[in-house]
Amino acid sequence: MNYKYVIIGSGPTGLGAAYRLKELGITDFIVLEKENRIGGLSKSFVDEKGFTWDVGGHVQFSHYKYFDELMLKALGADGWLTHQRESWVWIENRFVPYPFQNNIKYLTPETMWKCLEGIIHNYKFPINQKPANFREWILATFGPGLAETFMFPYNFKVWAYPPEDMNAVWVGERVAVTDLQRVTKNIIFDQDDFSWGPNSTFQFPKKGGTGGIWESVGDLVGREKVKLNATVEKVIGPEKKIILADGEEIHYEYLMNTMPLDLFTQRVEGLDSETVQLAQGLKHSSTNVVGVGLKGKPKESLETMCWMYFPEYNSPYYRVTVFSNYSPNNVPDISQNWSLMTETSESLAKPVNRETLIDDTIRALIEDKLIESADDVISTFHMAFDYGYPTPSVERDGILKAVLPKLEPFGIYSRGRFGAWKYEVSNQDHSLMQGVEWANRVAANIPEVTMPFPETANAMWGK
Ligand SMILES: Cc1cc2nc3c(=O)[nH]c(=O)nc-3n(C[C@H](O)[C@H](O)[C@H](O)COP(=O)(O)OP(=O)(O)OC[C@H]3O[C@@H](n4cnc5c(N)ncnc54)[C@H](O)[C@@H]3O)c2cc1C
Predict the structure, then answer these.
(1) Per the database record, which ranges form the Amine oxidase domain (predicted)?
(2) pLDDT of the residue at 127
(3) Of the residues 31, 38, 58, which should be mutated to test ligand 1's pocket, given the most ligand atoms within 8 Å of the CB?
(4) Cα 159 from Cα 390, distance rounded (Å)
(5) What's the pLDDT at 462?
(6) How far apart are the C-alpha atoms of 214 and 228, rounded to whole Å?
(7) Are 133 and 166 within 8 A, CB to CB?
(8) 3 state DSSP class of 62
């Protein structure tokens, strides 16, 4: 077969590209997907008891007009539920509202002082040097007290790498100082300082979890344009030819890849071995999603909560979402059930015992006072996603700069969460727009922004 445009992967990036090509009036394209369903990491799953699970807490933060309009078109105005972004940190046996640094009045006097002393230290001895890594950025931005109390332990649980292995580019290059005046005022006047307010809302699909969105986008693209169970085994770069696992050959003029870049380079014939080797230096972490379906109702304090952060080491998870609060349809019967979805990161630097993870999670949920007893658990779900977070490692940008241009002579462009490996533009909206902008580039000669200039994209369209 011959197609002018071929897309590897039917996650938001691949579907975004396909949708845009169709919108431009182009029909000469195909999406190749190795799984038997579309959606990639934005898929949802229904377990045997009827509980719906996402690949971790997926919420929409978009400010891209294009993305917002497509979401509305996909599910219709009635297809969404709107929620306040209520997020908390569980620490020292209590909930502290997010952002943590503005609400340290909730902590014990000893910990509160430790955090405050660190902020004062940064005011007395400002660090004006550009941070060389994420550790330095944390220390310069939050001070040593907040770093040790929250930022270091929490970020290790999320990223599964020590902060000195990570760059400071993804959080912005500017060193912002935590606002001493605001923090002190909140303590003295016993003031809450939540990040959520009337405008801090997010939307979630009424039905089908996050995956429901992408199933609908798949319909808009046209199902006949997505070839399922089609694993790309090899790309012969100089011949612009793809070989699928079943032996089928597909010729392309322009190819967009969304599978993980390190794995993809291994499949491209024609790339020099040095480039392939270099790409193997990209770091990532895995995500374990453990869903816990429960009988009864959540306790009152959880009724309006969206997600919670867990910096302490008694629990395997870094984040827990009260998933039944996102949509009543995420559980079999909302009058009798509720659900918690947990995320646990994993890497060589932070191994996880997958065998005991469900039990470890339930034990910690009881310790953290989210559930009362293991007897309330009526369903459990565990899935491990080997590629969960593309780590913004210290060496990442150098690798991307060397590897991505080597693909272009073969008509190959690598985009998306793991295709382009830029965490700062790897949410659903960013990913979709990377696909849309790629289509604009190759079919209409419009330059891309999101993938090459993440900071500009985030500044232009919000985070
Ligand atoms: C734990 C977690 C929490 C998240 N939370 C949020 C959130 O709150 N908000 C948000 O907006 N986003 C969130 N995301 C990000 C969201 O999942 C991604 O933005 C999105 O799925 C990335 O889309 P993609 O198309 O780039 O890649 P993917 O979704 O990874 O899709 C790639 C596709 O390529 C296919 N593929 C791989 N190899 C081959 C092959 N050889 N041949 C053919 N096909 C192949 C895969 O099967 C997959 O379908 C989260 C992600 C994770 C892991």
Answers:
(1) 13-339
(2) 86
(3) 58
(4) 9
(5) 53
(6) 14
(7) yes
(8) coil
Mark 295-324 as b/e (b = at least 16 C-beta within 10 Å): eeebeeebeebbbbbbbbeebbbbbbbbbb
- 93 CA → ligand 1 middle, Å: 34
Q: What is the pTM of this model?
A: 0.96
Show the domains of the chain with their CATH numbers: 2-43+210-282+392-459 (3.50.50.60), 99-188 (no CATH)
Atom of ligand 1 nearest to the CA of 59: 8
Q: Looking at the predicted structure, is the pLDDT value of residue 218 above 70? A: yes
- Residue 61's pLDDT is 78
- 462 CA distance to ligand 1 middle (Å): 21
Question: If you compute the radius of gyration of the chain from its CA atoms, what whole number of angstroms results?
Answer: 23
**Ligand 1 neighbours (beta carbon < 6 A):** 8-14, 32-35, 40-42, 55-60, 231-232, 258-259, 287, 343, 385, 388, 416-419, 426-429, 431
pLDDT digits (tens, 9 = 90+) for 17-73: 999 999 999 999 999 999 999 999 999 999 999 999 999 999 987 879 999 999 999
Which has the minimum average pLDDT: 181-185, 196-200, 361-365, 388-392?
196-200
Angle at which helix 428-444 crosses helix 454-461, to 10 degrees, equals 110
